[in-house]
C-alpha cells in the first residue's frame, strides 16, 4: 500500500479507510492526518465510490491526537504550522462518510468520528474529550461539534471533566446513529454504506449538504436552501429513474455519478 498508517480498500462502491497504528491505539499523528485526508479526498473524487467508511481497530477507533508528538511543541510551532488544520479537509469531502467506531474514540478520535456524517458504534465504544486532563482543549472541533450533537449540558461536563461516555449514553444523547454488537460492527457499517452508495450519488451529496446546512444557518434560510436543492434533484436522470421505477413496481437503477 502507498500508506504507512492507514489501509484503504474498495468494496464495490464503498471505500474503506482503516486507521492502522496499533502500537499507539491509532493516535492521530501528522502522517496519519496527511494520509487519511489524502485517501478520503481521492475516494471523494472517484466516481466509482458512493460512500466512505472510516474505522479503526476493535480496541481503539483512535485514542486522540498523538500526545508524544505534541508534548514539546511551542506556541509558535503550533500556530505557524496551523497544527491539525488539515483535518478541515475532511469536512470538504462531499461523499457521505460513515464512522464505524469500536473501543476508544477519545480527544481527536472523538472529533474525527464527529467529522463523519453517520456514527455507528460497537457496544464497547467509549467517547470522550479528555484534553483538559492534559492541560489543553479540543482542537479539531470538539467543543463545537460535541455541543451541537449532544447539547451544552453534557458537552460542557464532558469537556470540563474529561470523562468517558459509554454507548448507551452516547446513543441516548444523539451522538451515534446506532449501536451494534462488536463482532457485527463492520458488517453493519458496510451494509449501511452500501445502501447509501446504491442511491443516486449526486442526490446523497445533496442530502449531506442540506442536513449540514442546519448547522450553519437559520431555519428559514435552511428551508430555503433545501427547497432550491430539492428543485435541483429534478435535473437528474436519477429522479426520473427513481419515480419511474416506483410506478413500474421495480427496483431503481441509479446512473448519475
Ligand atoms: C500517543 C498514545 C495515545 C495518544 C495511547 N497511546 N494513546 N500515544 N498519543 N493519544 C499509546 C500509549 O502511550 C501506549 O504506548 C500504547 O498507545 C497503548 O496505550 P496504553 O495506555 O498502554 O493502553 P491502555 O492502558 O489500554 O489505555 C488506553 C487509554 C489510554 C485509556 C485510551 O491510552 C489513554 O488514556 N490514552 C490517551 C487518551 C487521550 O488523552 N487522548 C486525548 C489526546 S489530546 P507505549 O509505547 O507506552 O506502549 C487530543 C487533542 C486533540 O486528542 C486536539 C489537538 C489539536
From TrEMBL:
Record key words, sorted: Lyase
SUPFAM superfamilies: ClpP/crotonase
Similarity remark: Belongs to the enoyl-CoA hydratase/isomerase family.
Name this polypeptide is given: Enoyl-CoA hydratase
GO molecular function: enoyl-CoA hydratase activity
EC number: 4.2.1.17
A Pfam family it matches: ECH_1
Keyword Lyase applies: yes
Catalytic activity: a (3S)-3-hydroxyacyl-CoA = a (2E)-enoyl-CoA + H2O; a 4-saturated-(3S)-3-hydroxyacyl-CoA = a (3E)-enoyl-CoA + H2O
InterPro entries tied to this protein: ClpP/crotonase-like_dom_sf, Enoyl-CoA_hyd/isom_CS, Enoyl-CoA_hydra/iso, Enoyl-CoA_hydra_C
EC class of the enzyme, as a word: lyase
Amino acid at each position: 500500500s502507498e500508506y504507512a498508517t492507514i489501509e484503504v480498500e474498495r468494496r464495490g462502491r464503498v471505500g474503506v479507510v482503516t486507521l492502522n497504528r496499533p502500537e499507539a491505539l491509532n493516535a492521530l499523528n501528522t502522517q496519519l492526518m496527511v494520509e487519511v485526508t489524502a485517501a478520503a479526498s481521492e475516494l471523494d473524487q472517484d466516481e466509482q465510490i458512493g460512500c466512505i467508511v472510516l474505522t479503526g481497530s476493535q480496541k481503539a477507533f483512535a485514542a486522540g491526537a498523538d500526545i508524544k508528538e505534541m508534548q514539546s511543541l511551542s506556541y509558535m510551532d503550533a500556530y505557524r504550522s496551523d497544527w491539525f488544520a488539515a483535518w478541515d479537509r475532511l469536512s470538504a469531502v462531499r461523499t457521505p462518510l460513515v464512522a464505524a467506531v469500536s473501543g476508544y474514540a477519545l480527544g481527536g478520535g472523538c472529533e474525527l468520528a464527529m467529522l463523519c456524517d453517520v456514527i455507528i458504534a460497537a457496544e464497547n465504544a467509549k467517547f470522550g474529550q479528555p484534553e483538559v486532563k492534559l492541560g489543553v482543549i479540543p482542537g479539531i472541533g470538539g467543543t463545537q461539534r460535541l455541543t451541537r450533537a449532544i447539547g451544552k449540558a453534557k458537552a460542557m461536563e464532558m469537556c470540563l471533566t474529561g470523562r468517558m461516555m459509554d454507548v448507551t449514553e452516547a446513543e441516548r444523547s444523539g451522538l451515534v446513529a446506532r449501536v451494534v454488537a462488536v463482532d457485527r460492527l463492520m458488517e453493519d457499517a458496510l451494509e449501511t454504506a452500501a445502501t447509501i452508495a446504491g442511491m443516486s450519488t449526486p442526490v446523497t451529496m445533496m442530502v449531506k449538504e442540506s442536513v449540514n446546512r442546519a448547522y450553519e444557518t437559520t431555519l428559514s434560510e435552511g428551508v430555503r436552501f433545501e427547497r432550491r436543492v430539492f428543485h435541483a434533484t429534478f435535473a437528474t436522470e436519477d429522479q426520473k429513474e427513481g419515480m419511474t421505477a416506483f410506478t413500474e413496481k421495480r427496483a431503481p437503477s441509479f446512473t448519475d455519478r
